[in-house]
């Protein structure tokens, strides 16, 4: 059972999907180059890196007992007591559990959970990973309002987040994923790796947390300095600060690695972002004093997480939303609006906004750029449209997550009705064209990237779209941003260049990036040059760092897959199969590793074993589109094209949004002589993804082969309107 450890060892759990999406997608992005080999067979205006300079004689700070802070910081402790931070994670007992554990039952998603007590202990009887009901002990509570979750002990040091939570407002049990079929076969089930709290959650609900995963034993010995988000979770280890307090010496930042009151808001924003952002970890915890992207890979404004105008869609935990805002650009920081110790607003209602948006047109904060503030009475019926309205109603619309938890958008955008007068932000207008694949999309994308005042997270997001609109101009824009001051932009620029240039031509561009001051940039650049040998000491160091990142995440199947890809690409083939099988040990339902293993076996003369592996798993998981698609491809490679077609069709039916499945089916239909059906598939695909270049190229070819030149010309002309500089048009 995880336990406190009074030694050095930070950061809130909100959504069980917090890392599911990022780990299954963002970490997989790191593996995409390696997977390719097989398939062929936020921060606002981030400045230069913050360097915490310490006198060489000062030993690294260590964690101390949080109670030692209370003697000198009584006012802060008073605010903190009873806050969501303090009570983020507690031992389950009569004082901390408000839920009904008096032999209560709840049935949802086809499973029944019973809540009961054994003496002073809290227990649940619920279906486990095998679908059989069993008794499990509740070890910890998670959160206090408007809902409370419970962490279940399952052995080997593992804590799992139960999918049934307690509504502290309506005093009822409810399921976090109603109507989504989350039973024991579903990856969102409480027993699955996606709900492992050691990896997903506890870091942001404790102070001084280390996962301490033992890859050999496949177990955790997780430790923390204290439950809840305490002083050192944000300020860092305090031993040197205590030394400073005793002697009042000249230690930098009074003995802390960073000064959260630094005039540069980035220091505070990145400290909060370690938990208040959608991000993937790059290690076990973080190092105080380093940049956010030394320890985490934050998400850009993806279409899955954000609406076209940047407003919240899925749960994103504030930072990515705020990083787009005008306020972030002007130097506003979290603590200008929120008391960081109580988590409450610094003023009630509209008064928190009126700190700056007032009749005087002045801000009380010296670190905030007040230029451009209008002297106006905003808190009035004239501005609001009615008396008693709130600023957040229009500028921070909310969405409910986890069943009953309302979260406000932090991009502070201008309401749609007002935009008609004030002119809609060109970023939002452009994204309608870019993601919709409409005429003028490429130029709209290029024009946006040519702007010099774009928030870094928006710029990084636009760079991700560049591969859909290749041209010499696109390459020039991506290349220029390899030296952008914001690490998130540099990281996205590498991804864009990777899609626009062959590996050998990237080498000359990545020299400085391999020595980048921020780890996320170094490792993405190094991984991108895997297929180009002999890069020198800088590349050797960066790729070793990439490998170390994966080694620090060995509890995740994704990291084991990444290592397998690395070993395959770097000539360590003897280690590939073992790493893939380890990935499946960590998560038997992680189908990307299963498919990669089958492809590895097939490529190494073990085709029958590969086919058996996929066939067996497909029998157990007939609704897995990836397995259906893989079975179809394997049959085609073995000469059974006719038998492959039902599987390829099933993949498209099960996952119609996957463009690759639809494209492969179209090619297979064409090669089988069903040209009309093939063109219909491509036409349907282009309706969903008008920017899909492979679909356009193939559709034009199929039309011409079929004597339908007018139709081919229509596709060609629409392509020219979309991206006239596309080299394929020549």
Automatic annotation (TrEMBL):
Residues 331-360 form the Doubled CXXCH motif domain. PANTHER family: C-TYPE POLYHEME CYTOCHROME OMCC (PTHR35038:SF8), DISSIMILATORY SULFITE REDUCTASE SIRA (PTHR35038). It comes from the Bacteria. One of its GO terms (molecular function) is oxidoreductase activity. It comes from Pseudomonas cremoris. Keywords: Membrane, Signal, Transmembrane, Transmembrane helix. Residues 68-95, 196-236 form the Cytochrome c-552/4 domain. This is Tetratricopeptide repeat protein.
